[in-house]
Amino acid sequence: MKIELDLSRRPNAAPAALPSLAGLSLPALKAEMEAMGVDPKKSGMRAKQLRRWIHHFGTQDFADMTDVAKELRAQLAERYILTRPEIADHQVSRDGTQKWLTRFGPGIEGESVFIPDVGKAGALCVSSQVGCTLNCTFCHTGTQKLVRNLTAQEIVAQVLIARDELGEWPTSTENRRLTNIVFMGMGEPLYNLDNVAEAIDTISDGDGIAIGRRRITVSTAGVAPKIPELGHRTSAALAISLHATHDDLRNEIVPINRKYDLQTLFDAIRAYPDLSNSKRVTFEYVMLKGVNDSLAEARDLVRLLKGVPAKINLIPFNPWPGAPYECSDWETIEAFAEVVNRAGYASPIRTPRGRDIFAACGQLRSESVKKSAAEKRREALAAEAGGKAG
Ligand code: SAH
Fold it and tell me: pTM for this structure?
């Protein structure tokens, strides 16, 4: 059989998408302007105009940019778009929690969760990686291999998507529903610190999205050497996924502890800049039935935190399919909380939110998998062959 190849017709080849400027940091916008041929003397000013339209007004159309010359607007529209990454799925829980599955690229999907009534008004939980390298035994994301780090732009895009849905453009400081950002989604933020720090610069920029650094919390499982650096570079609030008070157990359930043990972790926490009673470290402690929930451990927890300005968040374990744990009984959690309470830590139990849509702590996981170079090549060849044959 003879197959005719018509290389001019490639029906399966998607048209090359233009890059989006939405979510880019100010320095990145400036670099794009220069790449476009804008005079370097003017590129800073142009970048600031764009920043205001994109991140203060939330515009997705260059035509809105009335203080930018028509000719430049046309040039911009030829080279760029202002759209967000595609939303692959969006779910709303009975309790008002919302979850987005965002497609950052083919097969690269990550989740973000908006939780009303947390922080000053509502918090958005963002992902810093697709998948994770840490393998904490109680965490669903830990069962998914790392696919890749998210870029700063992709992290900021999660905030833009939530703002779009909540209708919170232009940026206003009154009656906001989205007031806080927590890096508690998929991934380990301190293994992607450059991009996380750049994203925080953009999110906190007063002429853009304007969510203050003190309302941004970064949670780590304990990448000790990066903890003080996180504070120096971002001034964000620090959260630590502690979950155990002794190295033996922590080595088992939070395996990064084998690399950085509790002593090393606490030395790093004490070196976090500007800790005070008004800027405390949040310690997250997931309540696992019969594993870490005894009263002796509650007392050890209090002892361990002595001298560190701290808040404690007891998180009832959120189940996921095949999870090797159960959530502690409610009486056990209350008794544990009582010990912590008596030591002066107020309201330590975190109510689970969004469990019905799998949006609660530790339930996030996407189907994305990392593909080998050989797999990617096979797929590209198959697409190519499909295109030719069609
Ligand atoms: N890697 C970072 C960011 C993820 S934060 C970190 O570990 O801090 C996600 C939080 O949810 C962490 O405190 C994590 O330990 C907790 N968590 C994970 N699985 C959970 C589960 N099944 N139930 C409740 N909390 C969980």
Answer: 0.91
